[in-house]
Structure formats: structure tokens, C-alpha cells
Amino acid sequence: MSTGENEQALRKIIDMIRWIALAVLLLHFYYYLYHFFSTIGLSWPFFDRILDNIVKTGMFNNFHKSKLIALGFLTLSLVGVKGKKSDKISFKQVIIYLVSGLVCYFIGYYLFKIYLPAIFLACSYIAITIIGVVLIITGGTYLSRIIKDALSDDIFNEENETFPQEERLMENDFSINLPAVYQLKNKKRKSWINIISPQRGVLVLGTPGAGKSYFAIRHVITQHIRKGFTMFVYDFKMPDLSLIAYNTWLNNKDKFSENSQCFFINFDDLSRSHRCNPLDPVGMNDITDAAESARTILLGLNRQWTTKQGDFFIESPINFLTALIWFLRKYQDGEFCTLPHVLELMQVPYDKLFSVLRTEPEIEVLINPFINAFQNGAMEQLEGQIGSAKIALARLSSPQLYYVLSGNDFTLDINDPEHPKIVCMGNNPQKIQIYGAVLSLFVNRLIKIVNQKGKLKSSLVFDEFPTIYLNRMDSLIATARSNKVSTTLGIQDLSQLRMDYGKEQADVIMGIVGNIISGQVTGDTAKLLSERIGRIMQDRQSLSINRNDTSISKSKQLEAAVPASKIAALSSGEFVGMVADTPDQKIALKAFYCEIQNDHDALKREEDGYKPIPVISKVKQELVLNNYNLIREEIKDIIEAEIQKLI
Predict the structure, then answer these.
(1) pLDDT digits over 123-140, tens only?
(2) What's the CA gap between 83 and 86, in Å, rounded?
């Protein structure tokens, strides 16, 4: 117990040990400098007899033996010293004092090797040795006053915010495994990011340059194709990801059936693009499919409508477009059911258009409000209902788009067991609004076909996901898991997703995804990630200095494992996040904060050996224009034929 009596007794013991050390040192001086002491009259016969008895113990058999004994007692006395703590004393100062003291304490021996007058020798030796003792005592006292602050060197709390991560490689038929290195205290350790359940959704976040594609998305593509996944790739900057998917498929054709193929949609380079009809009548079984397609294409062209769904002037153009799509789906069993034909049909004058549309009973409910407005002369209302759709869709009236969207080189059932496919569709950053709306329609139709039972395992990869509009993406992630569909979404920031999809749907997507890999992000995104990763027990220290005492208090406290500020300062290749597990493969350490390890040289060699995307067919501008004119003529023929029937 720390009582006043105990402390007083300890001080007395320390003082006694220190006096013993000084007494041994005085005996050392008296023995080796006896001639000096006798000359100045400081020798006594009684003391000499005592010294003779001490000599018999062997203390003075060696010049340094008695000094070492004195040094030992002196060191022992310093062990119990308790000085007032100070943050101004460092180990460097203590070492300087102790080393200087030991040098002075022992260097006096060499004075005996030099011829010097007895008095000068004795005075010099005693003075140097005493200086050494003073320096040793000072250094030892300062040592007890040093504040041992283990966290003082960790300015940014780097070591204190580390935590153990999964170091096992856990694989299965669906897994994506990324090798990494993480820091645990002051050591670097190898780890693995094991995405063993990508069917629960993979969200890859990061500002431009964070390394989303290079460190994460490319590995999703390569590893899934090597495991026999059929795949859809939305390539925002075509052909970056398309090249990876195509060449990986070429090298792993043995993982697929003989009928597997790789298809591309590229609106900028028609010679390297296949043709596909997203409104293929085979996959459009009822009018709800037409309604869903109409909603997707219009909301893709007008993103601000996503937050106004349900308004009269939003639902009216959607219903109008639904009626046009379903009319062409029913006309001659869908022979002319393509988006280009729908766009041309919309341009027909109202009197002829409504007369033809009334011949289809299933869309009568949809077109009645428009017919009534037309018959009652409410043209302003009619233009308000339909005009926004016509203006938006007019931007799609392009010979290049008509050419790609009016063909049937392949169907969107990528996970068909008989004909597995790799499909890559490319956007253009300079034409996001136009291409994005069309690609949204492709994706919407593809997901409805893919998300069925009895099909092959498939992987849907979306780079820069907010640049396309996909209605109810959260329901896809929630339901497609049981149908062996893995979904990977690449976004830059949650604010970007909120801007294009609305806050509610963006928050649902963020909350429902099971696996998150995030590079550098800021703001609300960083805060949400920090909260999702959770807290760990961290050491805390507080230093209190007053006039009488200095104290350090240590405690443990739950703090964020990865603070938002640290997520906002990640370097390229550094990622944080959390993975999901399965009942068969439990992962206790789901959170990670690490640096993904890419073999840059191997990837460079692999890319150097890539084959370019092949030329599908040499498309001349004359052919594209002829197709454009043909579609316009076909719509005219349909209108004239139906008008003749009515007459």
C-alpha cells in the first residue's frame, strides 16, 4: 500500500544504499591514493587496520572491482527514485548523461598510466570520478522523470486504429478473392478480401483515380469468367472493360459450352457492334413489360422525373409510350416491335395515330385520355401530356441508333444453358444522356430475362452505374440471389447516386448491398462507411501536468475502426469495406482496411497480349441510311394500311 510511512522508509533505504556506494568509493580512493592521503596527513592507524581487514575480502584485487561494487550500489539506489514527471525530458538527454558519467567514472584509470605528480594525479582522479558519479545520479534521476507515452509518436493514431482482418483464402464457385496487405499495430500482414457471396451484391465506390476498375472490377470480370459465369458488362469507357472480358473469355472457352459467344454493342463504332432489339417481342409477354420499358426509357432520358413519379404530366407520356410499344408488339405478332419503329410511330399526326391505335382493344384504356383531349380540342393539354415524351425521344432519332436497335444478332438471355453469352455494352462519356437511356432499356429487359430459375450462373457488372437508369435495382439484388445472379455496381460517391436515382432509392441500394469495397470517398459516404464498419476498442491516454505533480491516465474506449477522415484520405489501391458470408462459410472478420495487391508486371504483360475487339462487319454509311429510311417507310405503310381498313 502506498502510505506515508512506507514512502518514508523507502527513502531511508535508498539513502542508506547510496551512502554505502559513496563509502565504497571513498575506500577505493583511500586505498589507491594512500600516498596522497598520508602526505596531506589524512591517514589514521585505526582506519588502516580496518582497511587491512577489508583488503583480505578481495575487494581490491582488481582496480575496477571496488568501483564496480560502488557503481552497483549506486544503480540500486536509483531504482527506487521517484522524480516529478516532465514532458521536457527525453531519453536522448538521459543517455547523454549516463554515457558521459560512465566515461568519466572509468576513464580516470588511464591517469595512472601517465607520469604525473602525486598531488595532481590524486586531485584529477578524484574530481573526474566524482563528476562521473554526479552525471550518473543525474541521468538516473532524469530517467525516472520521463513520461512513457506510448502513443505520443503515433500522431495520426495509425497503429491504434488497426484491427485484425481475414488472412485465410476462402473460395467457392462464386467467390471473388483479392489479395491484400494490411497493418496490425506496427506490422504489415497479408490478408484476403473474400467476396464469397457476390449474389448479395457488390458495391465498388471511389472517386476518380481511386482504382475501382484496376483493383476491383477487372478482377470480378476475370475471376467470374474463369469460373464459367455468363456475363453482362456495362462499359462506361468502352472498350476498357470489354477488352478484359473478351480476352478472358477467349482464354477460358473450355469453361463454357461449345455454343458460347461474346457480343458487343457499340454505338460509336458500328463495324465492331452487333445489333440487338431490346423490345424483342419474344421477351415481351404482356402489357406490363411494355409499361416497364416505357418507364425505363423516359426516366433514363429525364432523370429529374425519378422524384416526380405519379404526377399527371409524368405518367401521361409513360402511358402514351406504353400504348405505342404494345400496339407494335401486337401488330403482325411483333414484326415491327423495335424502338426505332416506336419513335417513328410517335411522329405520326394525331388524327391518323389515334385512329390506328384504337384498333387495338388492350390499349384503349391507356389512350382514351389523349383521344378525349384531341376530340375536345384541348390541344394545349394534349401537347403537355405527349410533348415531353416526343421532345425527349426525338434525341434518339439517329441513323446509328436505328441501325443497332433494329437488328437481331443476339437475344438478351445471356444465361441460357444452350447458348451462354458474354455481352458488353459501351457508353460514351460525351453522350451519356442519349446512350445511357438506350442502354437502360437494354439492361431493364436483360435483367427481367436473366432473373429466372433454371438458368446458368451469371454476373452483371456495371461501371459508373449512375449513368444509366435501372428501375428497382434494389429488388434485383434482393431477389436475384436465389437465381445465381451476381451484381456488381461501380459508383463514385453516394451523392452521385442520390442525384440520379433520388435519395430514397439510393439509400436503399446502399443499405441492401451485402459487400462493399470503397476507395477514397468523402462526405456522407465516408461517414456511412465508417459507421457500417463499426468500432473497435482503442487505447486512450491523457497527460496532466501541474505545479506539484505530473500524471498519465490510460483508458480503453470504443472508437471508429476507420474514421471518415481516414476514408477521405485513402491512396489509390487502398480500400475499406465489409464482406458478407454464407451459412457454410462463416467469416468472423468481415471488415477490412487494406491495400489490394496487383501484380502490375503480370497485368501489363497480359494487356500487351490482348486481342482487339474483332470487326463484326464492315458497315457503310449508305447501309445505315437505307435502314433509317426503311424504318420510316414501314411506319408509313402500317398507318396507311390500317387507315384503309377503317375506310
Answers:
(1) 888 899 889 888 988 888
(2) 9
